[in-house]
Amino acid sequence: MVVNDPEVVAELAALYPRYEEALVTNDVPVLTEMFWASPLSIRLGAGENLYGEAEIEAFRLSRPAVGLARRQVRLEIRTFGKDYGSITLEFERDTLNGIVRGRQSQVWVRLDEGWRIVQAHVSILPRS
C-alpha cells in the first residue's frame, strides 16, 4: 500500500476547499453531499454526537448560520492506498470572548459515488 500517493493527496486537497466554503457559509446541500449518505456515517461535534445521515443533516439544517467563519491554522492530509484518507485541521475562530481554537478530523473514503466523509470529529480546545 502506498502512503501519501501524491495523486491521491491532490484529489483530497482539491476537494477540501469546497467543504470548507460550504461549512462557513452553511451550504447544507453541499455539506450533505460530501458526507456518506448512510446510517453508518458519524459526526461527533463540539456539542453533539450524530449517527447516520439523517441526524447529521437535521443538525446542519437547525444550527445557526452565523459566526461560522474560521482561520485554518494547520491542514494535514494523509492517504493510504487509492481509496482511503484523512484530513485534520487546526483552526481559530474570533468570538466576542476572544479567539477560540479547535480541531477537526475527517475520514474520507472513495466510494462508487466518489470521495465522501464517513466519519468526522470536531472539538474546541480549552482556553489557556
From TrEMBL:
TM segment ranges: none
InterPro entries to which the protein is assigned, alphabetical: AtzH-like, NTF2-like_dom_sf
A Pfam family hit: AtzH-like
Name the UniProt record assigns to this protein: DUF4440 domain-containing protein
